[in-house]
Amino acid sequence: MIELIATVESIQQAKDLLEAGVDTIYFGEDQFGLRLPMSFTREEQKELTELAHQYGKKASVAVNAIFHNEGIALVPEYLTFLKEIGADNIAVGDPGVVQIMKNPEYSIPYRYDAAVLVTSSRQVNFWGKRGAVGAVIAREIPREEMKILAAGVEIPIEVLVYGATCIHHSKRPLLNNYFNYIEKKESVEKRRGLFVSEPADDDSHYSIYEDMNGTHIFANNDVSLAPYLLELTEMGIPQWKLDGVLAPGENFVEVAKLFVNARNEIEAGTWTTEKSASLELQVRALHPEVRGLEAGFYLLNPEDVK
């Protein structure tokens, strides 16, 4: 069975996604999770978890920040809270969190999510032997490498099938530093829609924003693996991620509906090449006009990935 995991930006969007057929909603707060569409309060996280369970679905919470000393000290209290509200699993990137969860008082099923570091089945299995129930593989893995990885893993893996790819993260407040340097007071939040470009490339358009975790820069184009869903299924990849961090609103829910329908048809054996091509066009029509859409690293020759 294929599990569809989707980020959420509001309580209402979470309800819409669950009604659309998404299996797991993914959320959290900026103190502990990276690049979330919305940072939710504790009460809202409790409400989201209860909502998911009302629909017979799962709630997954982002605890995938990389923590400094003062940050890791706050993690036990947050894990206690997540256990109390019944979160089904968490995404973890910092081994320090895994170490904390060796204490049964704080233990929650976790999926290993260390971004660009997760590139081999051996690494996935390493964390599987240390309690991980799944792993989020890097978004920079080409198809041929993905086939090898998927064939060797011992726990389920998650692949991004729609959404933005972060290409740089710094704990430094790079935007604020820049505006301070030019003596301007400007908003650096995601909703501002800022971007940076290569000096010699007018077509480059890297979205950038800053929050309490630092500065985040995203690739020119977002990822859509809509034409390749059957391939992913044949590889044995059971978890598909829909990331709406830069694709907000009702259109994200409509995109989720398209992927739910595709999943259902693939599982029923009624998916065709023609339907795959149509899905790609429908996803493009719903995608934000200011952002491009492509297959990302998926179609690249592994030798070209540096």
Report on the structure:
With 306 residues, the protein is an alpha/beta fold. It has one domain (3-165, 221-294): TIM Barrel (Alpha-Beta Barrel), CATH 3.20.20.70. The chain is built from eleven helices and 14 strands. The chain has helices spanning 11-20, 42-54, 69-72, 75-85, 95-100, 121-128, 143-152, 174-181, 229-235, 250-268, 273-286; strands at 3-7, 24-27, 58-63, 89-92, 110-112, 132-136, 157-163, 166-170, 195-198, 201-211, 214-218, 221-224, 239-242, 292-294. The strands form two sheets. It has an eight-stranded parallel β-barrel with strand order 1-2-3-4-5-6-7-13, surrounded by four helices. A four-stranded antiparallel β-sheet has the order 8-11-10-9, with helices on one face. Strand 1, helix 1 and strand 2 form a beta-alpha-beta unit. Helix 10 (250-268) runs antiparallel to helix 11. The chain starts with a strand and ends in a 12-residue tail after the last strand. Keywords: Hydrolase. It is an enzyme of class 3 (hydrolase). Pfam families: Peptidase_U32. GO terms for molecular function: hydrolase activity. Its EC number is 3.4.-.-.
Main β sheet profile: 8 strands, parallel, barrel
Task: Please mark out the parts with pLDDT under 50 across 5 or more consecutive residues, or reply none.
Answer: none
Strand order of the largest sheet: 1-2-3-4-5-6-7-13
Number of helices: 11
Domains counted in the coordinates: how many? 1
Corresponding CATH architecture? Alpha-Beta Barrel
Q: Would you count the extended β strands for me? A: 14
Helices and strands: which structural class? alpha/beta
* Net shape: globular
Give average pLDDT, whole number.
94
CATH topology descriptor: TIM Barrel
Cα end-to-end separation: 34 Å
Rg, Cα atoms, Å: 19 Å
CATH superfamily, called what? Aldolase class I
Provide the succession of SSEs.
EHEHEHHEHEHEHEEHEEEEHEHHE
CATH class: Alpha Beta
Oligomer: single chain
Strand fraction: 15-25%
Helix content: 25-40%
